[in-house]
Structures are given as C-alpha cells and as structure tokens.
Task: structure prediction
Amino acid sequence: MTDKSLLDIRKLRKTFPVKANVFSTKSIPLKAVDGVNLQIRKGETLGLVGESGCGKTTVGRCLLRLYQPDSGRIWLEADPDVVAEVEARDAEREEIEAELQSVFENGSARGQSRKIRELKQKIRTIRAVADRKAAEYDLLSMPAARMQQARKEIQMVFQDPWASLNPQMVVKDLIGEGPYTFGTHRGRTLDRWVNELLDKVGLPKNAANRYPHEFSGGQRQRIGIARALALTPKLIVCDEPVSALDVSVQAQVLNLLISLQDDFDLAYLFIAHDLSVVQYVSDRVAVMYLGKVVELADSKQLYQSPRHPYTISLLSSIPVADPDIRVEGQILEGDVPSPINPPSGCAFHPRCPHRIDPCDKILPELGRDRAGHRIACHNPPND
Amino acid sequence: MNPLKQFNWRFTVPVDLVLIVVLVSRGSGVFFSIAVVEALMWMVRLLWISPAMLMYIIRRLVQAIPVLLAVLAIGFALIQLAPGDMFTQMELSDNIRPEQLDRFREQFRLDQPWYMQFYQYVINAVQGEFGFSRTYRAPVFAVVSQRAANTILLSLTSLAFAWVLSIPAGVFAATNQYNIKDQFVSIFAFVGLAIPNFFLAFLLLYLVSSTGNWLPLGGMTSSGFRHMTATQQFFDIARHMVIPVVVIGTSIMATLTRVMRGEMLKIMNEQYVVTARAKGQTENKVVYMHALRNAINPMITILGFQLGNVMSGAALVEIVVAWPGLGSVLLEALLSQDLYLVVGSLIYGVGLLVIGNLLADIALALVDPRVRVG
Amino acid sequence: MEYVLEVNDLATYFFMHDYIIRAVDGVDFTLAKGETLGIVGESGCGKSITSMSLMRLIPDPPGKIVDGEVNLKGTDLVKLPEEKMRGFRGNEISMIFQEPMTSLNPVYTIGFQISEVLRLHRDIEKREALSEAARLLKMVGMSDPDQRVHEYPFQLSGGLRQRAMIAIAMACEPSVMIADEPTTALDVTIQAQILRLMGELKDAKDTSIAFITHDLAVIAGFTDRVMVMYAGVAVEDAPVKEVFKNPLHPYTQGLLGSVPVLGVGKLNEDGTRRLLQAIPGTLPDARRFPRGCRFAPRCPHAMKRCWEAEPNMVEVAPGHKVRCYLHHEEVRERKMRNLGAAGRRIAKLQEHDRKKRESKRAREERKESKRDGVS
Ligand SMILES: Nc1ncnc2c1ncn2[C@@H]1O[C@H](COP(=O)(O)OP(=O)(O)OP(=O)(O)O)[C@@H](O)[C@H]1O
Ligand SMILES: Nc1ncnc2c1ncn2[C@@H]1O[C@H](COP(=O)(O)OP(=O)(O)O)[C@@H](O)[C@H]1O
Ligand code: SF4
Ligand code: SF4
Ligand SMILES: [Mg+2]
Ligand SMILES: [Mg+2]
Result:
C-alpha cells in the first residue's frame, strides 16, 4: 500500500507555550499534538475526529506549515528507500537522546559534562545527516525552493467562511491569487481557469467580480473550496468545512466536496467533530484524544465495530435520529482533561470504564493491528 | 485547599491600624507610616492571596530600577554639563563659611572623578538625598517631598472627581443610546477633550474674577491659614482646589466617559446581561450590578495609563493657579537654574508614576477574579 | 388536555431604519404539563426570537411583539406590565442559553448567581440561599458542590457551566423551561451528559420544556412533540414519531434528508457514491419574504398557487398540523387565506378601524337624533 501513499506523517509533535497564570513569566508547554503517525493515500478521504481541543486543527495546520511543528517528519510522495534510511537514522538519534535523558535524570549530570557534550554533538551530526537525506521529500526539512513547490500540493479549507476570505479582494482575485503567484496560469488563461472553477463549485460566472461579503455562508465556503482547488493540489485539508453552516446548506457543500474528489482526484484530510458527517465522507477514520491517535481504521470497521473504549463511548453518545431508540448507550463522565497536564499512561484512563492496572503508568502504543484496524489500548473490551 | 485561603484578608486590617499607631507614636510622619505599613502588610497578604502576584509585583519593582537609573543618569549628566558645582554660587554669599562648603563637597565626593560622583549620587538618591537646593537653601528631598504631597492631593482629588462624574455619565449615555441625552453627553465629553487644560484654567479664573471673586484664584491656602481651626483649614484648602480639580478632572473625564460608554454598550449586549434579566432581575440591578461591575475593569486598566496624563496635566495647571506642587517647583527651579532641584523633582515625579502604575495593576488584579484567583 | 403554555399567533418584528424584519410572523403552539416540545429550524428562522418573546426579553427598540398572546397558566404574558413580568421570569418561566461560556457573569461566583434568582423570588436569607445553591449544584450533578459555590465561571469547563445554568433555571422549579440550543456549543460526549440530566430533572419536577435546536437527531430521543419552523412561521407541528416516520412538509422532508445519519457510509450498496438530498438555495431574507409559501423558492413540489398566497396551517391527522398546499383538502375560506398571515393581521387591524369608525358614526348619529328630538 505504501506505493499509493501521498502523505506520511511520522511522530509529529507540536507544543504551544502557555503561561501558567497571568503573572508568571515562565511558560509551560501545552502538548497539542503528541507523536501522531498518519498516512494519507492518493485520492482517499481520511477523517479526523475527536473532542474539542484534542489537536485536530493543529495537525491540519502543521501539514500546511501554518504552524511550525516541534519535531517529526511529513513525507510527501517519498521514495521508500529514503524514508527507510532516514527512519534508521532517526531511530539511532532517538536512542542517543534517550541516553542523554537518562544521564540528566540520574542526577549525575554534574561530573559528566564532557559526555553530555559528546552526546549532544552526536545528536546534532546525525540529525544533520538525516535532514539532508530527507530534504527532497520531508516537508519539515525541505529547503525553501523545494517547499515552495510542495506547497502547491496541499491546500486548506477553513472552518469559518466569514473570517477566512479577505474582504477587500474580489472573488476572481481570491481564487486566482495562488495560480498567479505560482505562475501556473496567467492573463486570459487565468480568467478562463477561474471561471471553470466557479462553475465546478456551483457559483454563477458573475460572482467573479463581487466581494465576499455579498455571499451567504454556503457560497463563501464554495469560494474557499474554489480557492483551494485553484492550484490543483493533491490534498486538501478541510478543517470543519461545514460546521459553521446551516444543515440544509451543509448537505450542499458536502455533496460538492464529494463530487469534486472524483473530478480532481483529490485526497482529503477531513477534520470534524460531527461523527456522522465524517462517516459519510471518509474512507478511513482516525480518532484523536488529547493529542494522540487512539484508533485508526477503515470507516466501515470503525463505525461498525469500534475497539477502543473512547471510540465506543464517543459513538454511543451521538444522538440517533430515530425516536424509537431512547436507550442511551454508555455516557462518558467528566470532561476532557487539559493538554497542559495530561494524565499519565493512557491519557483516557480517568474516564475509562475498562481501565486496568498498567493503564495509568504505561502509555499504550497504536498497535494491535487487525487488517489495518489499529488501536492504542491495553484492555480493549471486545478483543 | 490551602486553609489560609478561606481566611478573609479583611480581618487583618486592624493589624495595619495598630502598626500605624505604633509608628506614629514613635515619632514618624503620618503619611510615611501609612505608606510603609500598607506596603508591608499588602506584601504579607499577597503572600497567601496570590504568591504569583507578589512575585509579579516584585518583578515590576525590579524592572523599574533601570528606568529610575536612566532618569538619574540624565539628571546627573545635566548637572555635570552645567558650569561649576552646586555650591559654587554659595561661595559668593558671605554667611556660609568655606570650611562648611568643603564638608558638603566631600559628602557629595565632588572632588573625585565623575563615575565615583555618579555612584555617590545614586547612593544618595536611594537614601533620599538629591543634593542641595540653592534657592530654597534646603535639601532638595525635603523641598520636593512637601511639594509632591500637594501634587498627589491635587491629582487624586481630580481623579476621584473625574471617576465619580464619568461613571454615571457613561452609564447614562449607554442606557439612553440613540437618543438626544446620549448625544449631549458625547458632545460634552468631546468638548472636554478638545479644550486645552491651561486655556480652561484661564477661562475659569476669568469667570470667577469677573463675577466677584467668590473662589480663591490661586495658591493653596489663604493668608490666615495658620490661625484657623482644623475644619476651617480643610475648607480653605478645598476652596482653593476647586478650580484646578475641575480643570484637570474634566480633561480626563472626557476619556473616561467615552470608555465607560463604550464598555457599557458592549457589555449590555453580553449574554450574561440577558441571563440576569431572564432571572427576573430589575433593570437597575441589571445595569448597576451585572453590567457596571464588569465595565469597571477596563476603567482601572486605563487608570494606569492616565496617571501620567494626570500628573503632567497637574504640572501645567499648578503653574497657572500657583498651586505649590511639583509642577510649579519644577518651573521655579528651571527659571532660577537650580539644577539639583530640577533633577530632584523629575526623579520624584517618575518615581510616583512608577508606583502609581503598579498600584493600578494591583487594583485591577483585586477586582478581576480571573486575575485574582487564576 | 390542560396546557401550561398556550402561544397564539405570536408575531415579533424588528423595526429598523428603512425596513422591517419579520423575525417571528405568527406562531402558535401549546405545551402540556411535563411535555417536551422540540422547536427545530435553520439559523435565522426565528427560534431564538420566539423564545425571547415568551420571556418578553426582546430588545425594544428595535424589536416589538406586535401581535398574539402567550398564555402561561391563564395569564397573558404579552399584556402583563413589566413589573409583574419580572415576577414570572426565572420563577414560572426560565431559560437556558446556547453559549455556556458567556451566559454567566464572569465577576460573580457560581453560588452568588444561583442564590440571586432564589432571593428574587423567594423570601430567603443570603446564607440559606447559598446552601440551597449548593444543593442545586449537587442536583445537576456537580461534585464538591460546597466548594463549587465559591468558584467563578472561568474556573469551570463548558459542560459544568451549562450545568450551573440549568441549576439557575431550575432553582425556582418553574412550570416552563426554555432551552435555546443548550448543547450546540458542546462536544457530543458532554451533550449526552446534559441531555440525560435535563431528562432526569424534567421527570423529577414535571417541568414542561421547549427545547430549541437545529439538530433533528438531538430531539429525536428527547422530545414528545416537534414544531418545525421556517422563515418566521411554523410549517409542521406533530408528535415526534410522526415527524421522523411520516414528515409531511417538504421542508421537514428536506431537513431529514440533508443530515448524514449515523450508519450511512460513503458508498451505496452497489458501490456508487452516495449523495445527500440537499435542499437547494438558502433561507429567504427576513426583510422580504415571498408573497406565497415562504418555502416555494426551494420547494421541489411548488405549484402555481404556492407562489400566490400563503397556505394555512391545517390539521391533517390528530395532533399533526402542516402548512402546505399539498395537504390542504378543499379550499375553504379562500379569501381569508389568500391574504396570508401578515395580510390577515392587516385585515384584523382594518376590521378594528372599521368597527371604530362605525361606532363613532353610530354615536354621532345618536347625538344628532337626540338633538333632533330636542328641537
Ligand atoms: N495558537 C495556539 N496557542 C496556544 N494554544 C493553542 C493554539 N492553538 C491551539 N492550541 C491548543 O492546542 C490544543 C489543540 O488545539 P486544536 O485547535 O488543534 O484542537 P481541535 O481538535 O481542532 O479542537 P476544536 O474541535 O475545538 O476545533 C488545544 O488545547 C488548544 O487550546
Ligand atoms: N436584535 C435584532 N435586531 C434585528 N434583527 C434581529 C435581531 N435579533 C434577531 N433578528 C433577526 O430575526 C430573525 C430570527 O432570528 P433568531 O430567532 O435569532 O433565529 P434562530 O432561529 O437562529 O434562533 C433573523 O432574521 C435575525 O436576523
Ligand atoms: S489503555 Fe486502559 S485506560 Fe486506556 S483506553 Fe485502554 S483500557 Fe482504558
Ligand atoms: S405550499 Fe407549495 S411551495 Fe410551500 S411547501 Fe407546500 S408545496 Fe412547497
Ligand atoms: Mg479545530
Ligand atoms: Mg438562535
């Protein structure tokens, strides 16, 4: 399957510095995304779901380098040999980093400054070598020129159709800005291309010369989609593209996204908190909890037989549009813990009904692979 | 939970009183004792109300040091650039003996290189020694302190005056939005902002003098002040304060009213105001208890910014109405080229500003639970 | 059946500088004791303004309740003087809002804000009110209620704040509680908690609830009856099962078809891409509604007469009312109906004027005849 891989996210980490309180100067790291591995294949839709604040948007924004991730690699259509080699180097580096960490933790750092310096030097060289190797395919270590090219391949549709379009620009310029700066279309062809895009997203031709404020929310979202399509990217990150829209308009936009996928051979990273919407558009779904992926599976498998306790309760808290079903499934108690100070071990353990002994100490890895259906859990109830 | 947090800090107020009484009875000045005791007691209270805030205050104080040092350096440079030293002029007068002058010079290390002089200057400044005023023939600190108290009195009264008027005015304008009353307040506020202070001062002086001098036109006290009873003294000063307070007050009132109106308009549209109404609360309580209480926080925030305005505004007005404050002493000192006095009053003014801003910050923290508890 | 709340022909307009927004344009519904009514519709269709009208909390100016009555246990709230109305708010009829983050006052403690409503409507001491507040917090499922009463809203998460709002709304055990999208801003897991809590409280206190939402699925398992609103009017009003199993109005059908239902994947059985049945177009501008049926521009079944006059609400089965020509039997009272809702109101006014004129003329005639008699 790797040959069809479009984007391969490995060990992505992003922390935000936050102030402990109003008066403090020191900031503590908020782990918004904490070691996420995901693969997006060509032409597929990967759904990303989870409660508010679990890091969905942050993942999406890291892919576009709107946020600068702390560490990790994002492979774009990479040569598997290069990936394997860089991974080996990275693994080597991590080993040394762990060693360095243990030196610090043993409290014997004092007398070993020379060793520490050596280790640090080693880490630096290994990283430099790996980055140089990865530079061709890894979005995070690419040189600027290559990055500029790669940017064309990934575009984004934002949640808020009111805030994401520059009110001073007419629709034609909004959509044509990307192709113009990248030089893919110029002059007459650019106009023709913009008109074609407007047609594709179901807007009238005369929309081209109007300003965004003249459009309704659904129409603005269409403009946003046209703008994302303008560079014929291979992947569009859709961050809650329909949650600000009315239900009836929501369906129009979802239908549009689905039909465009075939026309343009697009892959979507579809971020949403509405699980029914995600099920409706996705081929595969990843469930996030506190910055980590806890379950990853085919859409069908995930919705029919969820395995992770969090996914199970998440699915059972969705209201069902059928008045005969009044039975409530298992309702999760409590709130999502703060990512500033996440619980130890499995971050879900304070709310988990299937918690067992090691849950609060040992972090479960995403594994227990069953035909591509993977979970991060020590004690899955249905396995 | 920390059991101390349950303890209401208001219970510690008697301790302040006792300490102040003790200090005063041991011969310290009243203002001095209050300032010292309050500063100390608040540090102690903060230690358990919010240690983070205590750290913040200490940090702010530390951050103020470079500012003050810079001011000192500028002042010192001014003094160095001027010909002679501060005692040169005294040599000319015959009632000071040369030995005495030499002793002064030694105290200020005027015989040593400039950096040693600066070092000594800073050391002296920390101890409240800013040198010797030529015109007053007294230590600068003593002269300036007394004047500063007058300036503080004037500024605080003006601030209080402005607040007491602008809060109701802002609320009134906001609750009568869209109609003529609102516009009246807005126009008034605009005019208050547009008229320069000194002009308004002259205008008032002219009005009062042409209608029969029913208010004193300048100074701080009348001629027979020493022979008055305490009550008479109080009213005498109050009468002298009317014109300067109105002048300074209106200029800041204009800003305050507009901020207040804007905040109230914003807050009256907040969801929690609707919640209060939905509880069946009376409109008065909705406005004064729910909305106004929230509009106060930004007012305190701008208080910090306004202190500078108030003090500089006060300085100008003092000169016009001959109020014996920092502003007028600065002018006098400039005119008579009494450099040490100039520098001393500048430093004093900056010091007051720094402390005032800090106090405004603390006040904000005390009224805003997000800052206080979080 | 005895109704706790009866709303008849409620109309609330906003009088702007150069146009009028007909936000609510003739809404009728009833609420029986212990009943839960769902009010559904897209944003801007007048759900919130309906609920604010019930509480008489419309910002005036520019808003005004121009017509109708709101009968709460025999009292018409629309005609009540403001002072008396205050005694009802929070006491007999209370409300929960959409944004838990902003609906509590940030500078007062939770305990204070709950005891405020208790002290307004009950003769109760401050201290007693506070312990009552703690009891209420416990009732809405907060741990450590004695500690929580001293906390400020910013110290609570969204779900906990919404619980505190429910405590405020339930404090005086009102007969009617209006919940305006109480779970829209919350995560599904928290939404499930809040829905369960509201259900339990309703059963325990026998409160009638008007539950406003734009999400049909939320009310499926929660309400007894559903009223679907579109562009300021109710278009369908039916028992909840009827609405889901046998929706009659084309708009209701469209709404049901346009939300992806859980269990429906990307592909159809035969492997083709599944598309939602979207409703084309958008909600009409509240300044200028179409002359006929307000849904006509988006309706797949629109006929000629749909464009000409607004249909009436008709009862097609016991308890199932719908406003659509497809379900009108014979055209009765054709003239009245042709005028539409707003026209009817104007006609009412004209009628009123006519009567006034007539009685005036009658008075004058009587006077004249008297004079004639004397002379
Ligand atoms: N610019 C930022 N500065 C500080 N913290 C941030 C920033 N952006 C996000 N966070 C924090 O990172 C975490 C993850 O945020 P993110 O926006 O990715 O969540 P999300 O899953 O998209 O949530 P939602 O469903 O609410 O959109 C949250 O705790 C959030 O508060
Ligand atoms: N304060 C106001 N001034 C003018 N128009 C308003 C005001 N509040 C609401 N409206 C209008 O009334 C209509 C109904 O709004 P609302 O009841 O809030 O809709 P929703 O069904 O989403 O709750 C909308 O067209 C809205 O624009
Ligand atoms: S690892 Fe343990 S606590 Fe975490 S989800 Fe699995 S069973 Fe629950
Ligand atoms: S009345 Fe006509 S336009 Fe309106 S919903 Fe019925 S069929 Fe459609
Ligand atoms: Mg997000
Ligand atoms: Mg609403």
Remarks:
- Residues A 56-57 surround magnesium ion (ligand 5) (CB under 6 Å).
- Chain A touches chain B through six residues (CB under 8 Å).
- The first strand of chain A starts at residue 5 and ends at 19.
- The mean pLDDT of chain A is 87.
